[in-house]
């Protein structure tokens, strides 16, 4: 359980670091991604991008 929690945290940190680059190629601005301001902060919930990247990762995993 601790190993999976560590993997999830590392992936979130990686995606957060890559977010500006991913937005340049169009990910993070798909129709299912939510962007809103709440409490003076800007929040991003990239639901469609997450589904797309999960699907790509699943395809890569099936190929190897």
Automatic annotation (TrEMBL):
Entries under Pfam families matching the protein: DUF2905
Keyword set, alphabetical order: Membrane, Transmembrane, Transmembrane helix
TM segment ranges: 44-61
The name this protein goes by in its record: DUF2905 domain-containing protein
């Amino acid at each position: 359980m601790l190993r999976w929690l560590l993997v999830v945290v590392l992936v979130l940190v990686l995606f957060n670091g890559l977010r500006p680059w991913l937005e340049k190629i169009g990910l993070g601005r798909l129709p299912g991604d939510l962007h809103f301001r709440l409490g003076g902060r800007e929040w991003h919930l990239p639901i469609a991008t997450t589904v797309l990247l999960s699907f790509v990762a699943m395809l890569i995993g099936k190929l190897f």
